[in-house]
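Lecture notes, unit on protein representations.

Consider one protein chain, 510 amino acids long.
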Amino acid sequence: MRRSFHLAIAGALLAATAAPALAAPSALIKCDGYGRRQTPGEQVGRGILILGTLGLFGSAERDQPSARLKGDEAIAACTEALTDSRTTGNPVRRAEVLLMRAGRQFEMGRFEEAIADARAARSVELTPLVRSHFDRNVGAGTIMLEALARLSQDRQAEAEQLAFQAANARPEGTFMAEEALRIMQLTPLITPDERALLDRLWRMMPNVQPAAHHEGAGDWAAAAASLKQLAAMSSKPGVGLLARMAAVQALAGENDGAAATLARVAQDLDELAAQAQTMTPEKAQTARSQIANADELVQLARAQLALNGGDLEAAKGHLAGRPRWLAPAAIAAPIIRNVQAKAGSGAAPGIDPAKMLADAAKVRRDGLTGKGVLNLATVLLPRWEDPDVAQDLAKTMLPTSKIMQPKPVRDGAATSILTARTMASDTAHEALLLAAARAAAAKGQDRFAVIFQFVLPTTAREGLANRLGMIEFVTPADKLFQGQENRALKVADIEAALGERYRVPEPPKR
């Protein structure tokens, strides 16, 4: 009897303990995978936006991103979540739910409904100080989603205008700018807005993107100049970059430069092939892929160079034997078209340059309007990030901190700063940029040029996030700066744009 009683009590206690874990996720969790968040508040005395302890409406609930629903089920869950006290009592949380519902409307092809939800999210009532922070994250996300919806309606001009607006919400960030440029790249014409974003990214995060846009526009001289400057930032540029540069130089008519680049990449390819013999199977496979891709671009460069020199048979020979090309269509198609125009249909038989370009354009567009963009629309677009993240980062930039401190790299030719914490991707870019500016100022320099920047991506409640970030830069005191001076950023400009946001909060007054 006593044993049965104890077993009954134990069973009841176990059931009571297990009940919360077994409870079905709420509509809020089914909508976007997250529970309540604190309501934004203002501490006017310091003029810094902080999160208060007010507004924790509704019960706490474990975050479960895997519990998100899709399609109409998600729309229904988000609609129900809008009646939850955790959203009715918190305008920021309500905006996040509306943004997720907008993404799910987009998923179902209901673009006007998606736009309406995005605008409703952007229009929640907020105090001015909270609004200024909101517009840099959730607000920017709503604008970009509206841009994607307009693009899906074949309203390219409107999509570009909205995307540019979203990118300008955080001018020292890179994520929204990169997404905006993906939309703008769908047309070959480089607009003034597109050029402005390309220049901004080229200064903050140098990569092949500006060259790719110039290639799409057929501006080979500009593309070649961009690639040459990019190669100069590395003591050992990759074979893919050099091979691409050779092809673009040939298209630009820079015959001597292309020939010199081809000789350089040929040696590097030979060395990489030899190294692959001693690599692990996984690394060897990567090396073989790099070699194959570079070899295609090398053949294209040689074909264009032969054509430039009037050797049609050699040009045809370099294109022979390939049923398809994996090189960027913006490079491969013009070279094949050029050879076919001079050498006739016998050059690269079965290859239609116009179709190559059309197929590439379709893939790019599908990536922004098809199923491939849903992860961006529902998970990666910026959500709210607590303002005290920036304050915490400011502390790590102090000389007394042991993290985010400048260190010499490249045998002292440049300086590097590293950050290793989870934060919104654009926050990481801003923080690294400001840390570089402050490090340059500490050296008595008024300018610096970024020669490398990256963040290791992950996903978080804030949207696309950073796990690890690094920036490498040079100042006028560094020899490498001479080749990068036209990309320099002024320390005063970066401090003026970001300094107030990333500063150590003052101790409370007693």
